[in-house]
Amino acid sequence: MKHLLLIVGLVIGLVLLPMVVTKAYILNLIILICLYTTLSHSWNILGGYTGQISLGHSTFFGIGALIFRYLWTLGTPSYLALCGASISSLLLASVIGFPAFKLRGHYFAIGTLALSMIASVTVQNILPGVSFSPPQFLSKYSLIPIYYMALTAALVTLAVVSALTRSKLGLAFVSIREEEDAPEAIGINTFKYKVISMTLSTLIAGLGGGLFSFYVASYYYYVPFELGWSFDPVLISFIGGAGTVAGPVLGSIVFVVLKELFAISLGQMNVLIFGIVFIFTILFLPKGLIGIIGMVQGMKKSRDRLAKNV
Amino acid sequence: MEENGSSKKVIGWACVLVFILTLSVTSTVFAQAPATIKLGAVIALTGAMASGGKDVRDGYEIAVKHINDAGGVFVKEYNKKLPIELIVLDDESDSVKTTTRLDKLDSVDKVVCYLGGFSSDLNVVGMSTAEKNKVPWIGVTVAAEAPFKKGFRYIFVPFSLASDQVVTFFDFLDSIPKDQRPTKLGHMELQVDWGKECGDYIRDMAKKRGYTLVADQKYAPPTRDFASLILDLKSAGADVVFSVPTPPQSIVIVKQMKELNYAPKVTLFIRGPDLSTYWAAMGKDANYIISDGNWHESMPYPGNDRVVKDYRAKYPDVSSIGIPVGCSYAAMQILAKAIEMAGTLDREKLRNTIAKVEMMTVRGPIKFRENGSAIIKYGFRQWQDGKNVQIFPKEVAISEIRLAPPWDKR
Amino acid sequence: MLRFVQILSYGLLSGALYGLVALGLSLVFGVMNYLIVAHGGLIMLAAYTTFWAFFYTRIDPFLFILVVTPLFFIIGWILFKILFQSLMKFPEGEKIKNSLLISFGLLLIFSNLAILFWTADERAVTTIYSGKVLSVFGVRLPYIGLGGVAIAIIVIIALHLFLTRTYFGKAIRAVSLDHEAATLMGINVNKVCLVAFSIGFALAGIPGVITSLHAFNPAISFELTNKALVVLILAGVGSIKGVLIGGFFLGAIEAAGVYLVGTPYREVFGLILFILILMFRPQGLAGKRA
Fold first, then answer.
1. Do C226 and A117 touch (CB under 8 A)?
2. 225-244 in B: which are within 8 Å (CB) of A?
3. Which fold has domain A23-309?
4. Which of the four, A103, A181, C32, C163, has the lowest number of CB atoms within 10 Å?
């Protein structure tokens, strides 16, 4: 119960934040954290919970950005365009994503990687230019509506994943992850559940893509299709703790804030130092950042036990 | 499901973490003194564009040193000379980071003006960000013209654009004596905005200028194998080739041209061979390749020798100094002049003043147009026996153009 | 016709390099389920090593293979002991995941160290025989490309002999089939993995040398890793010979792509066919069915 209060308090705090903090930089960082949380959880649903490691999420992210931009410049209200972006991502998945389930394990991973490479090259060839924000938006550009859309996207995502963890659906996902063939044996249609998992996953990836397009005033059309958008959510989820609700959130916060701090203070060495810190984290926290909490709890428990024995 | 309760606890810890970090970032904001002119640049120091990013940064830094050695820029509003403080951030060759870090320079560091980074890919996004933040932006190594058609007010680019490059290309060809002049043009269009703009100009102008476009091919940034394109150029008999390849491609294309025994009289690759390491990479095979000549260390413009001297003091082993160095130095010269002319550090007034600047820089005379592009002198360099020399236009050329003979005669 | 054969030849020559690029990655993954995505970074570092050696001593790159290979073997040995040995005890899924993450960190470190030390400028090695070709019925075959094919074949044969004729090689194969069974047979699995890992690194040196003869910069680390992963899966996990076949196959398909859909879509064509092949043969061309 007090956990729920804590979360509600946090949400209210975030909602009220723009009235207190006007520094665009802070809002930017929170928007980025929300963006990465959304995208990482979209991967997490398919990869962390259902065990299907996809390296092709940049494709669904990218198409979300593309469709959002298209609808928005035509005059569609932003939240409606966001829904359109989300759905377009799902439509694309139904064509290229679901058939990919014929592949298993590493083959699925590299097959989806190939998909994202195809998408990024194709988009660069067809749309080699820049998508400029329409002039009327550029002059009135404000981070506030973007901030709230980002919060909405992240909260919706977290709500979905949270609900998943409590449902039979989530249980089915995890059973597929744990042992690919066993669920078949007890009558669960693995293909059907994989499809549902990918549906949720790509809907959210499209959501993230739409948010990206709303946030970044101008960008090259191919940028949201770049492979970094496929790899970053994987790294973030694993570092934070895949298959959990809080993992990708923690991972996103660390990823965004740490990289930013390094970039500001370390100049040319920033990515190098980040790589070193990254490796240390994996070596000492194999369960992800979530593991810190477990370790702290474990230490507290053994300290309590010691205290009791005195 | 696992870890439900601890998940919530983690979120609690996470919010504590966020607030602590927020506090630490905001607190650094208050430690500012208005005793310097703060300028900000987001440049590719790591990632795919890092090679040119270094040159851009070097140019800025040498300029800042020269300005500060003289005491700084006189700002009438404070009735004294203020030194320049240039904050450089890395965008990791990632245009999204270009935006967020430019935003940081605006909202946290409150810079007076932005300076550009390296390459169209990143700069075009930077220019949009400057426009939305209403901070003047002056930068180089942007040749794409799309941003100038958007009615942006805050951007200034003292550099060649696609149209300058193609027009000068034809001027350059015209300067070759008629009996030796190549007239059959082979064009390879890189599928990026700048590449397509150049392509459109070429297709539009070739015939009018008296040249025949005999081959017109496309390729993309990931392309690593040019056999098909080269065979086409060869069979069409193209004796002059124009393209804007990426640096790796500028090496691979020439190597494959040698393998397939194709040697057009003139090969112009605007980007790629201009890097000083091209000769070390290609050896004698780099001879005769022509590339961008926005600036050269030999240019006789005032102050240029000082730039070269300081650069070579820092990098004694460089065979030829990269173009961005002189160009970014000039950008800083223009900005310093504008600040002085404006007499204030107010962004709007500065923006209006930059637009009126007309001056002589280390890369020649500069005057801005309404849309922020500039009237500049453009030319080309050529690799000749280990040296990358300016061969066009004649006023600043230190060597004559050499037409390439067949491979077996070199 | 001649034009098609010329383009196809170039594709096949590239294919030999693709196979070499994937070889080390495939070996290490097959033996111990470590997915070393830093492999592209290793190849890049080997290319730089070759470049600087050539710059200062003018030593021929192909000869330099004899130096690079043992050098990278040692680097692999050291990195295994420091970073990867501790992962041996994890189950398969964890091993793949953790090795992937650690080597991704390595990839970032390698490419940024390269930028710090040598700048991101484009490099290449150009020897006196660069650009020279063997002309066969009008088809021009660059000596460097042919050298690459020859090296690839020699390496595959050498590796095959090592794995089938030597005790250690057979131990490696036993370990790749079943760690527990191998232990029961008295094989020191840790030691075998250490050696196999180091061989994997050594095998990065060879394509590194050949890459240096084209054009490279720190950013190709990522490109090469992607290529290696595609060839690994196309060939199918567990087959060494399959890797070279997969490489040639991919090179040939890409050449066909240039001919059919044009240069800008060359990679796309290759990748679409790659996916289609996987649809009909989910275990890859020469892989073992799960």
1. yes
2. none
3. ABC transporter involved in vitamin B12 uptake, BtuC (1.10.3470)
4. A181
